[in-house]
Amino acid sequence: QCVDGAAQRDDDRAAGAERECAVKRAACQSAGRRQADEFAPLKTGGGNNMKIKEWAAFAALGLLWGSSFLWIKIAVEEVSPFVVVALRVLFGLIGLLGVMYWQRQFIPRDRPTLLKYLFMGVFNVVVPFLLITWGETHIDSSLAAILNATTPLFVIVIGHFGLHDEKITGP
What we know:
Number of helices: 6
Oligomer: single chain
Number of strands: 0
């Protein structure tokens, strides 16, 4: 019954995507515009209807994020890991401040919130960036990328043994 229910949900999602595409095509036609191919979903197995535009964005992100290990390896040959991390964090900060300015958001000024941001920034950004960058002084960038990609697998195993409500189960 669970399998049939899952298949029904996938069919419903696919039908919903087709209806959405039909509505968008009709809107384009009624506005006198040419039928837009970007609304046509790319048919893939398993009920996943990603559009070509989404696959292109996915590929671009993969290239950007995947190549970061190569750029780190090149950078640590010239400067120390601390400088590489400091520059990465600085450029990230500048980018985020630009987005905040564009969205008219402000940095909180109360001490408890700033301390929480500092804690999260250090342990979720600076420490991992520093460890990856330091590691690339000893191993190839491709191995660093592969090891980094195994993070979800380690989280599954650690969650299974470390948390009582996150046990590994079958499909």
